[in-house]
Design a protein that fits this description.
mainly alpha
Length: about 100
């Protein structure tokens, strides 16, 4: 819990910091708080669509919550952004997760 409080403190100083929001979302997932994690990931990706790492985690969260169609859409969006950014490793991870879920 201390980690979450520290991240919230950092976030209060810089509310649009995608790195801090992403880290906080991951902490929320560890605590079983998918709802707040989802909100943060969606906020990041709305503001900064090129923040590729958040696509995978958001889609996995949706997958865990049996929201398969939404997860597939986020994987697809992530693959598009990863390809645009030339992030081959991220593209491969997103594609692998997409294929595993869709077949």
């Amino acid at each position: 819990m201390e980690r979450i409080e520290k991240l919230k403190e950092f976030l209060s100083e810089n509310p649009a910091d995608s790195f801090i929001q992403h880290a906080l979302a991951l902490e929320y997932i560890k605590q079983g708080n998918d709802e707040d994690a989802r909100k943060l990931f969606e906020e990041i990706l709305k503001r900064e669509p090129g923040y590729v790492g958040s696509y995978y985690h958001l889609a996995k969260l949706l997958e865990r919550n049996n929201e398969t169609e939404a997860a597939l859409r986020w994987y697809e969006k992530g693959m598009e952004q990863a390809k645009k950014a030339g992030e081959d490793r991220a593209y491969g991870e997103l594609r692998s997760a997409y294929e595993e879920l869709s077949y």
